[in-house]
Amino acid sequence: MRAAVMWGPGKPFEVQEIEVADPAPGQVAVDLHSCGVCASDLSLTTAFGQPTPVVLGHEGSGIVTAVGDGVDSVEVGTHVVLVWVPPCGKCAPCRRGDDYLCANRRSSADKRAGKGAAWASPLSVGGTEIHQGMATSTFAQRTVVPANAVVRIDDDVPFPVAAMMGCAVPTGVGAALRSAHVQPGDNVAVIGCGAVGLNAVMGAVVAGAARVIAIDPMPERQALAKEVGATEGIDPGQLDGLSGLDVVIDAVGAPATVSSAWKAVRRGGTVTVVGAGRPHQVVEINAYELFHDDKKLTGSFHGGISMHRDLPMLVGLWRTGRLPVEKLITTTADLSEINEAVDAQQSGRALRVVLRPQPR
């Protein structure tokens, strides 16, 4: 099958033929029809310890083509979205309903981190094992994953939209609805209008926010934010002039943006950080102010969304036009164009490029 392999940290992708194993007991094979290029994929090998060679990609949708023994949750022909935090259903976070924080989630970086060997990857080329990035590897024509790493989606949902439902939509919308708990009438700002930030804008609108301020250095991103519901768009240089906000959602996650968000919320307000900061970065907050102003600083991993529980809710909001996901897809492209898609997104020329792994 065809896949985009990264042979060294930060190196360009090489689209080539590789082998994929048949699904073992408890696993399923999925032919991928759409996969989104997420910024998180591009920093895994350089900032987060993902070993190489690797097939990256965690935002994908497709059709189940084979199932291993013991799988009864899906069958061949089921349309699915890949889930990059497959819940075990048994650990403490899963039992309390926080399955996006599953304690038994494994990744191919675990061995390097001293957590023991991960599972055997189903991917290889010429006898060399290819790591399975984010335990999903959606930058390929086919992937093999545990059955709990896919969730059904209605057949009429277009594959590009379904792929976005794998990360950008739940992460951003969930940051507003689940993590920040935006309330009707709230005044909200969102820092960073990439795909996740724009979904946070839409989530704040769905929650009934009165004022939604989109903050981004690119005027076209500000304009798109207003198109999907923001009441205004401003440049980051104006952020320090904001105050008295109920909620600020930081989709950048840098110490400077977190600090600015902290200053912008009112006493009792909430700062929710959904942007992936780097492991070495530290945010300093005045201890007295933390006590005195009673502000809340929260993280937001995967938007606090349980895919198995919440995907129907997200699809319902899309169906009724309240989550116009299509507006966030700049274009679609063949998998062979992945390096051009990466360049377009990193330069800001594209917001989200969705790749087509299957030949036309």
From TrEMBL:
Residues 8-355 form the Enoyl reductase (ER) domain. The keyword Glycoprotein does not apply. SUPFAM superfamilies: GroES-like, NAD(P)-binding Rossmann-fold domains. Its cofactor is Zn(2+). One of its GO terms (biological process) is formaldehyde catabolic process. Coiled coil: none annotated. It comes from the Bacteria. The keyword Oxidoreductase applies. Gene3D superfamilies: Medium-chain alcohol dehydrogenases, catalytic domain, NAD(P)-binding Rossmann-like Domain. InterPro entries: ADH-like_C, ADH-like_N, ADH_Zn_CS, ER, GroES-like_sf, NAD(P)-bd_dom_sf. Belongs to the zinc-containing alcohol dehydrogenase family. This is Alcohol dehydrogenase. It comes from Gordonia lacunae.
